[in-house]
Amino acid sequence: MTIESYNDITDTQYDALQEIGSIGAGNASTALSNMLNKKVTMSRPKVMMVDLAKLSDLIGGPEEPIVGILITLDGSIKGMMMFAMTQASGRRLANLVIGQDTENMRFNDIDKSALKEIGNIITGAYMNSISMMTGFNIISSVPHLAFDMAASILSVPAIEFGKMGDKALLIDSSFDEAADDIDGYFIMIPDLESYDKIISKLGL
Questions:
Q1: pTM for the whole thing?
Q2: What would the mean pLDDT of 176-194 be, rounded to a whole number?
Q3: N or C: which end of the chain has fewer CB within 10 A?
């Protein structure tokens, strides 16, 4: 069945996206554990369709300062991926990579480099999970890192999703390392032709 809008996604297709998210979460946990040399787990992701107008509400509201890590996709699958988190979670992740302990919300060049590397790992893990399940070759861009209010950063995926429906496909995950819980929101935006290819390859 050809998907003409993200609003048309069925429950069975939700289940497939949930499975892709779970594999991606496992890949990301393993890669981050290796990077940090300590165990990092990731919760089973929750897949949701949310109204575009309410997308920023899920990350603390339109004025919440967040970190957005965006990559574009090419090859067999075209579109974009974004990993978004509050700046507090971004600070905790950067601290883990660099081995520091600070609550300063001003991110220096070393912090930004660490977050870009984390973004590479997380988005790469999800991309690899799609490749593993479909056999598709997916090429990703260099990650683009942004710090701003949620409404501003999330306007980019909102514009892209707006071309295909009035809802966004959101994968909600959280990391757990020692006592620190780090929430993250993974927004996957294949174009509709690419989404059709993924669903078709999975036999759905």
A1: 0.81
A2: 72
A3: N
The total number of residues written for the chain in this structure: 204
Q: Are 80 and 189 in contact (CB under 8 A)?
A: yes
Residue 117 CA to residue 172 CA, distance in Å, equals 20
Task: Reduce the DSSP state of residue 182 to 3 states and report it.
Answer: strand
Q: What is the four-CA torsion angle of 12, 17, 18, 19, rounded to 10 degrees?
A: 100
Please give the Cα distance from 54 to 76 (Å, whole number): 31
The conformational region for residue 61 under phi > 0 = left, psi -120 to 50 = alpha, else beta, is left
Provide mean pLDDT across the span 6-29. 75
How many Å apart are CA 177 and CA 39, to the nearest integer? 7
Q: Give the DSSP letter string of 31-42.
A: HHHHHHTS--EE
Q: What is the number of alpha carbons within 13 Å of residue 200 lying toward its C-beta?
A: 11
Homologous superfamily (CATH) of 6-201 is CheC-like (3.40.1550.10)
> Which tens digit of pLDDT belongs to each residue from 113-146?
989 888 888 788 778 878 888 888 888 888 889 9
